[in-house]
Design a protein that fits this description.
alpha/beta, Rossmann fold, globular, AB_hydrolase_fold, PLipase/COase/thioEstase, hydrolase activity, Plant_Biomass_Hydrol_Est
Length: about 240
């Protein structure tokens, strides 16, 4: 009797499984189109018009979440743009796009398209394209260094978010300078410390500046450092 019941159960189970539809796997393809409108500032050094035969470096600067608000006054903008508005002169072009979304990440592909457009329409030395960003823009700078390793000659990141796995994907010949405030309560200094240690472990040319008694606004000190701009100018693309 037991064997008969077991036999019937197995038959029902097999029939039940057989009645289930098999899975379907479809290979598909969709061409997508994403449009992004980027406002930007583009600074030209005084020599640009005076020396029409010369090619100039360009610095791409990515701001943080605090500059998303519209109609910021000169004193509310973050350097280097606000330093330009205050009259400081730089020896290279500065491209500063605006991310208009308060809680959205930078669209780095759109930023790269903007950079390519500016480079193609101006007298830019393609071996001297520099990258810098702060906070959320610092995180985007790390991302762009990974995505476009053959573009940037040097990078400076200030109090940025630092995805540690990126350390192994960046152009190892690109010098990097990291800045962070020790009392940063928005993005802890340990993020930069971990990234710098990992970069050094992999043999990168990396500098690290920590500011004592400084919170998240480490950019005020970092971009007031004359040596930063001299350091940029000494770098050329190495692939």
């Amino acid at each position: 009797m037991y064997k008969t019941i077991l036999f019937v159960f197995l038959i029902l189970l097999v029939n039940s499984c057989a009645s289930q539809p098999s899975y379907t796997l479809v290979d598909g393809e969709l061409e997508t189109s994403v449009t992004e409108t980027l406002k930007y500032y583009l600074y030209y050094p005084p020599e640009y018009e005076l020396k029409p035969e010369k090619k100039f470096p360009v610095l791409l600067f990515l701001h943080g979440g605090g500059e998303v608000a519209e109609d910021l006054g000169p004193n509310e903008r973050i350097p280097p743009p606000n330093l330009i508005l205050q009259g400081r002169k730089f020896p290279f072009l500065i491209l500063a796009p605006e991310n208009s979304y308060a809680k959205s990440w930078w669209n780095t592909r759109a930023v790269k398209q903007l950079l390519d457009s500016v480079v193609s329409k101006n007298r830019i030395d393609r071996n001297r394209i520099y990258l810098s960003g702060i906070s959320r823009g610092g995180g985007a700078a790390w991302e762009m260094a990974v995505q476009y390793p053959e573009t940037f000659a040097a990078m400076a990141v200030v109090c940025g978010m630092t995805p540690l796995p990126y350390a192994s994907w960046i152009n190892k010949k690109m010098p990097i300078w990291v800045f962070h405030g020790e009392d940063d309560d928005v993005i802890p200094v340990e993020e930069s410390e971990s990234m710098v240690n990992k970069l050094k472990e992999f043999g990168y040319d990396v500098r690290f500046t920590k500011y004592e008694n400084v919170g998240h606004e480490a950019w005020s000190k970092a971009y007031a450092t004359d040596e930063l701009y001299a350091w940029f100018l000494r770098q050329q693309l190495q692939n």
